[in-house]
Design a protein that fits this description.
Elements lengths: L7 H5 L1 H32 L2 H26 L4 H23 L6 H28 L6 H30 L1 H19 L16 H12 L2 H17 L5 H5 L7 H18 L10 H21 L3 H29 L5 H30 L1 H22 L1 H5 L6 H17 L1
Helix pairs in contact: 2-3, 2-5, 2-6, 2-7, 3-5, 3-14, 4-5, 4-7, 5-14, 6-7, 6-11, 6-13, 9-12, 9-14, 9-15, 11-13, 12-13, 12-15, 14-15
Length: 423
């Protein structure tokens, strides 16, 4: 395995550095808050169904506002949309803090803020994703995707461990306070990014613009394949929300933070050893195989009666998910035109954000019905089966070759012309 990372995107692009740093800072707070909300809901209600319901509450705002956020990203100043979304997320974190300081925190307030956070995230994230494509050269997109995966896994290691430890030791309000502080730092960084303007094909953000974006996605079955595989993997085998209930089966006091850290640790391992994918050109096949291995890892995690084996299963799942995410991100940024990138990012949001929230609800409902171990293990098995089967009905994904794909070549030419005209 080849080790090492290509840091050139951070070196040559000041705006990418700001986005990257802001994403890391606010990501730590947001990841800590994510697990803390579930922990607090468990403390307030004692119900796995109530914890799983958090995912359902997030679902509708992400669908509606994620798609519309993609339309906005292709029409308006993406920097302003990013900063505005960050301010809205800051306000949500403040309300969580105030609710946690009450003598009897309200589960209704938790659900309300989860919905509002999901709304702000849906409106902001397509602009953030599309901007990452703009501020990094075309031939550095895979390196940027790998660096972004490293950033995400670092925050996913630090955030949940920090959130789990502080929630138990000092209470949820300590985590929400940290989240509030991180947003002030990220906003200060984000106001300084420079985003080149994009000439939209449509005159205004409208349902027509959304429909045209959906039509573009429909014309690309290879893209549809990546969305469906990721959506299936998350809906069928997302285990994070049930970690507190799964950890209760073990006597070790460190079981919960250990399990929270396992998948991010695996993702970090997969990212740091991902240089071998430089020799992989059939990205679609790599995505499908990695998603299947994610399901296998989750199945091992859920079925194992031993803490160490559950940890290994999550480690495998995390590594496989990292490879899939790196290949998906590079494939999207290298083959989707700039003027529809925001709308495609809105659709991607449905797969990599809506998928986990729907999976959280599925896991909660199945745990309430049949127990946590059966719910998690069966989900992993179903995921491996579905992700292994999807390429058979989506041959365009299976054949996608980054060297010969015409969409990749067209985007490279268009970006070269745009950069020449700017200079």
């Amino acid at each position: 395995m080849r080790l090492g990372l290509d840091f050139s995107p951070l070196r040559v692009s000041p705006s990418f550095r700001r986005l990257y740093t802001a994403g890391f800072i606010t990501g730590v707070g947001s990841q800590a808050t994510y697990v803390t909300v579930a922990f607090q809901m468990k403390s307030v209600t004692g119900s796995p169904f109530a914890v799983g319901l958090i995912g359902l509450v997030e679902l509708l705002p992400l669908i509606v506002f994620g798609l519309y956020g993609g339309v906005l990203a292709d029409r308006f100043d993406r920097r302003r949309l990013i900063v505005g979304g960050e301010v809205a997320l800051l306000a949500c974190a403040v309300v969580l803090l105030l609710n946690a300081r009450r003598q009897h925190p309200s589960s209704l307030v938790l659900y309300l803020i989860v919905a509002l956070t999901s709304t702000a995230d849906g409106l902001q994230r397509p602009s953030w994703t599309a901007t990452m494509q703009q501020v990094v050269d075309h031939d550095r997109q895979k390196s940027a995707s790998t660096l972004s995966m490293v950033r995400f896994t670092l925050t996913a290691i630090i955030g949940p461990v920090l959130g789990g430890f502080l929630s138990v030791s000092f209470g949820p309000e300590s985590v929400y306070l940290i989240d509030v502080v991180t947003f002030f730092f990220s906003i200060a960084l984000l106001v300084g990014i420079t985003v080149p303007p994009v000439t939209a094909r449509e005159a205004a953000p409208s349902l027509v613009a959304l429909r045209q974006g959906l039509q573009y996605a429909y014309s690309r079955p290879d893209l549809i394949g990546t969305y469906l595989i990721d959506l299936s993997a998350m809906v069928l085998a997302f285990p994070v929300a049930m970690m507190p209930f799964f950890a209760d089966q073990f006597s070790e006091s460190f079981a919960l933070p250990l399990l929270y850290a396992a998948m991010p640790a695996g993702a970090m391992l997969g990212s740091l050893t991902s240089r071998w994918t430089d020799r992989l050109h059939l990205y679609g096949r790599g995505i499908a195989v990695a998603a299947t291995l994610w399901g296998v890892g989750v199945a091992v995690f859920g079925a194992s009666p031993f803490l160490w084996l559950s940890f290994v299963g999550l480690l495998l799942a995390g590594a496989a998910d990292a490879i899939s995410a790196i290949l998906r991100s590079a494939m999207w940024n290298m083959s989707i035109p700039l003027d529809v990138r925001g709308r495609m990012a809105g659709i991607e949001l449905l797969s990599y954000a809506v998928g986990p929230t729907a999976g959280q609800f599925r896991a909660g409902a199945m745990t309430a019905a049949m127990g946590v171990r059966t719910a998690l293990a069966s989900g992993g098995v179903m995921c491996a089966a579905v992700c292994g089967f999807l390429p058979a009905v989506l041959p365009a994904l299976w054949r996608f070759d980054i060297r010969t794909n015409p969409h990749v070549a067209a985007v490279a030419v268009a970006r070269s012309k745009a950069e020449s005209s700017e200079s």
